Batch of 2 targets.
Target 1
Amino acid sequence: MAKTVKKAAKKAAVKKAVKSMKNVYYFGGGKADGKGSMKELLGGKGANLAEMAGLMKLPVPPGFTITTEVCTYYWDNKKNYPSSLKAEVESNLKKVEKETKKVFGSVDNPLLLSVRSGARASMPGMMETILNIGLTEKTIPGMIKKTGNERFVYDAYRRLIMMYSDVVMEKAAGIEPKDDKGIRKVLDGMLHDVKSKKGVKDDTDLTAEDLKTLCAEFKKTVKNVLGKEFPDNPMLQLWGAIGAVFSSWNGKRAIAYRNIEKIPHEWGTAVNVQAMVFGNMGTDSATGVAFSRNPGNGDSHFYGEYLINAQGEDVVAGIRTPSPMNKWSKNTHSEHLPTLEQVMPKAYKELDGIQKKLEKHFRDMLDIEFTIEQGRLWMLQCRVGKRNGTAAVQMALDMVKEKLISQNEAVLRVTASQLDELLHPAIDPKAEALAKIVGKGLPAGPGGASGKVVFTSEAAMALKAKGEKAILVREETNPEDVEGMRAAEAILTQRGGMTSHAALVARGWGKCCIVGCGELEINLSKKTASIGSVTFKEGDFITLNGTKGFVYLGQLKMLEAGEGNNNLTKFLDMCDKIKRLDVRTNADTPEDAVRAKKFGAKGIGLFRIEHMFYGTNAEKPLFILRKMIVSKTTEERTKAVNELFPFMKKAIKGTIKAMAGFGVTIRLMDPPLHEFIPQQKEVKEQVCKAMGITMEEFDSRAAVLHEVNPMMGHRGVRLGVTYPEITEMQSRAILESAAELIKEGVKAMPEIMVPVVCHENELIDQRAIIERVYKEVVAKTGVKKLPLSVGTMIEIPRAAIMSHKIAEQADFFSFGTNDLTQMTFGFSRDDIGGFMGAYLEKGVLKNDPFQTLDQDGVGYLIKQGVKGGRSTKAKLKIGICGEHGGDAKSVEFCHREGFNYVSCSPFRVPIARLAAAQAVAKEIKTKKK
Ligand code: PEP
Ligand code: MG
């Protein structure tokens, strides 16, 4: 199936390339064939070069772009080009020659070219650049004569040899260097040796003679190492470079980057061929990279770095410490260096004017590359600049204030992950870039954390008590671990998926967590663990990146979360003005409710009663619950249920009070019974003693409770159908809490939700109990205005399909997409760790469906659920409370499908608010088009 689809797509792409015929787009001299909106065809770089050169008439060295369609053609046709390409390149080259008044390959007046890749989405550092193409034994003397600068020409030549041998002769030829020591490293080493022999620090200190000798040595080395002569023909160099850029699209680095960034592999790259301008022609020349605003903090001043007498790659490569553009660009390394504004005031002024013009034109922060050749400014590239979370929020707010963009546009300028950065501590990206990933798992709880390894909850608590940070490392977690999980800085597990116990609990607390790290092996007796060949022991430091799912050894530097960030509040308030969806939270304690309110939650969409049996002060109710679970008779059970009542009421009342004025959806217990059966001998003994039963009796009752497939077993509403006293007690706890609060003057708005419903009769059964209790509570308390709202979760496929019938019995629906995903895919939500990694790696699935809603499959059932429900009750309130409620793409889906609200863990609330606003903004944008 997949193969057929791929073949068809390939054929279509080939046809398109042949049909469009135009494979090369010229730009320069105030004209351009393309424009900024043609990113798909010309790549980001090519499209913006066309926009700058043509529409904006900025000083751009002339050149041409070979389209991304040619790249697709090249890969579909055994690395051959469309037949017309050669002639098109030649005719465009003629135009460049005319514009520059130079000739490619000329002995007297040679034109040199740069060849650069440029995909639709920027792939920094992943793709290739080759400069100074056209330098040969024959053109070198001409260049020297024209420029009168022999040193410059040999510097340019040594760069060409270094880049070309690396990109074209080694990487594109598929040569895998031994010991990771590629030709580039070999040549770099030689350059370094020459500098040390001469006792100089910088490349600029080498003379023409030094460089000339070095070039000759380079060429010999290239021949020796790669077995081929360095090409001495300009056209051969040019076509070699073009082919290498297309090849690089499927290089290892590029593929890996696209996998991480989820950039489609079929997009292809364009190739930009451009006349060279030189920043290395002496002290009146320079090159630099700048941003129209500071990408690190969003400050609205022009910001950047430059190097005198250098070519572009030197700035990025960090060979010399670049100097600051202006006073706003100074840092501790560069504060003593002269600014471009001081050194070349004329060029700086022009550049500053251009960056302002570019911002106005593109209406965003831009990343600019420029070169100053003997005092003359040239623009080499501009693209929308990457920025961190702090900067993204600052810029969005500033640009609205400056009337550069609308509020709708502003909310689209901040991504969910940028917002997430502001809500959690994170590993310092500089430290992370240098560290080696030792293991990978599923990114279950975002942010970063560093601490000492512990293998038990007790050890985590003990370490916390000493004021130290613990990382709890477990095969998997269960409710007995909760206190340790709370005490730990972060959690790492071998098993489990994105909705496993550890993941749910950690995310609820905003805790960093990685689950399903399949390679992790724990040896509890030795108190050691290993991931692959790396072993660590209790007390060793490890660092987790819970946003990406990466594990590192040692203690990496951390950055604090943006506490009390006024900008964040302002930005999210702006989102609220735009969004239509309400954002509630999944919370089960007053503390979580208060936290979620701070993050902007308007109500609780899921209060899981069973969570009162986890964590602080849970010992006593947990003990009673265990008695309830192993009860055999109704009497035994009723006794336990009555004992449980005051605890449950207290937990519920506190949370309703904390969310006063907003709806609080309390879900009847859906306890994973098997998880609550005690395993430890002492606990078992205590339960036996309290119930007056023997250990054998206990074990035989536990054996009866054992289920082969507990996820599809005696849970949710089924528990309430078999044991009505459990539903009765819970309803009473909820309704009495609310009635008492109302009496105290608190605006209590409880909603009772029945889980795991598959048939309307289940709801009829439960509703009867709840309504009976409601009447009793009203009579007992005298609170006549006690609200009554009974709804259901839609989390079983049958419920979604039969939603029209179920809606007859429900005041609201809340989609439980954790279970709905589990049952639609047939993937156990606790066991996906074993295969999800392979599914994602092989592209069998694009996303983990427990993280990002499967809009096609699960989404189909949701659509049906909404349609059916609203066909019965047009105004039926509909929400989502599965983990997807905090995933940006899933929130957008809920908006489109006409939901009333989404509900997610407190720390995801800001992201849901952003995503809900973005959904509206996108809708408006699409309508405008
Ligand atoms: C769900 O299934 O989506 C849900 C919210 O319930 P739980 O995760 O508690 O099963
Ligand atoms: Mg569920």
Note: The chain has 37 helices and 34 strands.
Target 2
Amino acid sequence: MTAIVLDGKTMAQEIENELLERIGILATLGTVPCLAVVIAGNDPASHVYVRNKEAACSRLGVMSIRIDLPESVSQKELMDVVSELNNDEKIHGILVQSPLPKGLDEFEVTESISPEKDVDGFHPSNLGRLVMGLDGGFLPCTPAGIMEIIERSGTVTSGKSSVVLGRSRIVGMPLSLMLAMKGVDSTVTVVHSKSVEPREICKAADILVSAVGVPGIVKADWIKEGATVIDVGINRVLDNSKKSGSRIIGDVDEGAWGVAGRMTPVPGGVGPMTIAMLMKNTVISAERKS
Ligand code: GUN
């Protein structure tokens, strides 16, 4: 058996096409969605992610403003930048790329972003709305992208067993809530570093999502025959056969393709959907303001 590819790139393209229509309607109302991206320091992976976000903005005709800050930026300087963006009427979305340079308080920065412009969906007010099942906030982009993959691929969730590997505030925790919420109705287990027998727990999953950032940790014998497997890992590993000397692999071992029913590739699975959801949140924010 070879798993069906859950093609995030194609699904993201579909979402971009849907957004283009909404952006066209906004244009007739005199509104151009605008995203401000703040990046501090020189982390090479973060710079690649930010470039990809800017490229998506440019494809869709979303205005993007990029603010580059030095590695040495102080907490106050960074908070002042966020405050200015909060007060700028033409900006609909604010994203501060993480990780921040050492010594800066990421939680304080996240809390200082106006919840109405928090298109990352990380503000406690937006995460709180998710817990309470309230509309009107923003959903975090990676979990929202995963839910779109599940929905658009026609994967049945009701009454099924979902297992989420990882309990981060960006992916694992919010995703667990989304998979359990009314209308999705799966039974969710969160596996983390202190879980006993993770392999046995994963093997019982109809839907298995790995978001731990450990290359190849999920082996073929962790997977139930025919399961839907979503790989959130973006892990750079050495590969001398490549010109760059490295390549990107996921958390799920290649052998899983022989056991799973459907599976996301890395790259080309969850990554493009995260960016599509960021664009969607920015458009939603502009629609709410117009
Ligand atoms: N770093 C890695 N993923 C993300 C994300 O989704 N948002 C932000 N702001 N930083 C990130």
Note: The chain has a mean pLDDT of 98.
